């Protein structure tokens, strides 16, 4: 299939789109419809000349937004639609062609991702309406981690909670970890390496990838487990919920809200969840900002050290996501916290590898790579591959 793939990432009030051509020399069209359902709904994006546009879509719902997106594709006709779906449970170990049965399975998994899967389904329903003739493919954030062995995915909880309720570790950001580890294989010249990947954006997670397969990852049943994130706490004592309920009388809803939206870099610093702002505040002497960066980096290093147990051999570490791609300071602090790995940073290469550049930043020891993630490219590639297999 030579036609471009339209990649859709649908939230409850937003649709992110990218029209991904099958060759990298053609420009990608991309944009975001946001505040859907409200009077100030709008569509923002970039055209093929690289010019940005903003279009008011007052009161638009998902279907109306998709119709507006269609008019922004500059006459280019997608050959398929690839949907980013957050949770595929244990059923989906790879991408799947969307039909009624797949929709029902995504619905059945909604209890595990109550904020995301229903919104993703809204996107599928609207897309099936607007692009009725096109094949649609679901690409799951959890699928790449379905190769985790039981020792990595089971919690030490009563077996019935796993068997009857699916309570286990699933992991997320799978598309990103899959993309950057495959890219590290290609760039390093190692046929199939042992990589620790660190996706550091607003959400953050690490993964251990061996011979192209995820062997362990830092996120669990939900995307709250693991690293310190923009506004999410990451790991806390599992006794915290009971403590807050008993001692402070907090409701479950309040605890959930604080751990998901009021913690992480924002909670620690008391300032912001934005790493750029934290770096300048710390430089200006803000103690909370400095502490937030310190805890953030230490916890990444600690997670990477723990995940190294999942690899028979460590070939290197890959940094990606907005922070991983753009913050030499964070990379340096993480690497400095791992002297026992034998990591040696090339300071000049570290400083100059930012702004979407791919590059190697070590001076010996395990390889250290900065690889800008490309989740949309990977979703398009998986969509293409699945449809080609279907026609083989
Ligand atoms: P999302 O997970 O929402 O896709 P991104 O991957 O875009 O988020 O990452 C957002 C994070 O990247 C923010 O904390 C932002 O401050 C950080 N970031 C972006 N550019 C820089 C930079 N030059 N230096 C430090 N942090 C940066």
UniProtKB/TrEMBL annotation:
Q: What class of enzyme is it?
A: transferase
User: Which coenzymes or cofactors are required?
Assistant: Mg(2+); Mn(2+)
UniProt site (Transition state stabilizer): 173, 232
- This chain's protein is named Acetate kinase
At the top level of its lineage, which domain of life is listed? Bacteria
Q: How is the cofactor bound, as the UniProt entry phrases it?
A: Mg(2+). Can also accept Mn(2+).
Family, similarity comment: Belongs to the acetokinase family.
What binding partners and quaternary form does the record give? Homodimer.
The record's section on SUPFAM superfamilies has: Actin-like ATPase domain
What is the taxonomic lineage of the source species?
Bacteria, Pseudomonadati, Pseudomonadota, Gammaproteobacteria, Oceanospirillales
Annotated residues that bind substrate are located at: 84
Q: What is its EC number?
A: 2.7.2.1
Reactions catalysed, semicolon-separated, are: acetate + ATP = acetyl phosphate + ADP
Q: Which residues form the active site?
A: 141
Quote the subcellular location field of this record: Cytoplasm
Q: Which PROSITE patterns match?
A: ACETATE_KINASE_1 (PS01075)
Question: Is Membrane included in the keywords of this UniProt record?
Answer: no
Q: Does the keyword Magnesium apply?
A: yes
Molecular function terms in GO for this entry?
kinase activity
Q: Which residues bind Mg(2+)?
A: 9, 375
């Amino acid at each position: 299939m030579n036609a471009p793939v339209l990649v859709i990432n649908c939230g409850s009030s937003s649709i992110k789109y990218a029209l991904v051509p099958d060759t990298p020399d053609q420009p990608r069209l991309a944009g975001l419809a946001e505040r859907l359902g409200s009077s100030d709904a709008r569509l923002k994006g970039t055209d093929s000349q690289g010019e940005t546009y903003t279009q008011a879509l007052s009161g638009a719902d998902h279907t109306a937004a998709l119709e507006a997106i269609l008019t922004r594709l500059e006459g280019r006709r997608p050959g398929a639609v690839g949907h980013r779906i957050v949770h595929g449970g244990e059923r989906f170990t790879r991408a799947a062609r969307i039909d009624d049965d797949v929709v029902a399975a995504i619905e059945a998994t909604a209890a595990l991702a109550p904020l995301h899967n229903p919104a993703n389904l809204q996107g599928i329903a609207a897309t099936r309406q607007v692009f009725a003739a096109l094949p649609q493919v679901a690409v799951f954030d959890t699928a790449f981690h379905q190769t985790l062995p039981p020792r990595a995915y089971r919690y030490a909880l009563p077996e019935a909670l796993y068997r009857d309720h699916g309570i286990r570790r699933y992991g997320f950001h799978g598309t990103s970890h899959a993309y950057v580890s495959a890219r590290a294989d290609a760039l390093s010249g190692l046929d199939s390496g042992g990589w620790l990947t660190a996706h550091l954006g607003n959400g953050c997670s690490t993964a251990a990838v061996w011979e192209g397969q995820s062997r362990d990852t830092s996120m669990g049943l939900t995307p709250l487990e693991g690293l310190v994130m923009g506004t999410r706490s990451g790991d806390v004592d599992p006794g915290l919920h009971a403590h807050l309920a008993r001692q402070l009388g907090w409701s479950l809803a309040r605890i959930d809200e604080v751990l998901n939206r009021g913690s992480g870099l924002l909670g620690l610093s008391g300032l912001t969840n934005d790493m750029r702002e934290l770096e300048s505040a710390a430089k200006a002497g803000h103690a909370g900002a400095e502490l937030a960066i310190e805890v953030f980096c230490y916890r990444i290093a600690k997670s990477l050290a723990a995940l190294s147990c999942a690899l028979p051999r460590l070939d290197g570490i890959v940094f990606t996501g907005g922070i991983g791609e753009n913050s030499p300071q964070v990379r340096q602090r993480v690497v400095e916290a791992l002297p026992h790995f034998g990591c040696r940073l090339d300071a000049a290469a570290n400083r100059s590898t930012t702004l979407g550049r791919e590059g190697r930043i070590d001076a010996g020891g395990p390889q250290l790579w900065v690889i800008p993630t490309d989740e949309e490219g990977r979703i398009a590639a998986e969509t293409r591959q699945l449809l080609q297999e279907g026609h083989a």
